[in-house]
Every structure is written in C-alpha cells, then in structure tokens.
Amino acid sequence: MSSSKKSAPLPASSAGLLRFFEDETKGYKLRPEIVISIPASLIGISWILKIFFSA
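The structure assignment produced for this chain is given below.
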C-alpha cells in the first residue's frame, strides 16, 4: 500500500454526524421489541379475522 492512503484525513462531515446523534429529543421512548411487536400483532390479528370471518 502506498503511504498516501494511510495518511489521508477522514472526511470533515463525520464530526457533524456524531454531533447530530448526541442530541437528546423529547418524546416517548419505546424499546425496539415493542415497536416491532405492535405491527406484527396487528398483522396477525387481521389474518386471523380474515380466516375466520371470510365470506
């Protein structure tokens, strides 16, 4: 490998991204398990209703 690739600086925008994710926002905080389980359960309920009450 050439030495120019090893000494290349990182892009300046990476510091801005890190700073963006440090900001704390107000609002509800939900665990990822809850966020995934609510739509999955709604899909399951709709499938069950469709199976039992289909004409």
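Interim note for the steering committee: The longest helix spans residues 32-52. The radius of gyration is 24 Å.
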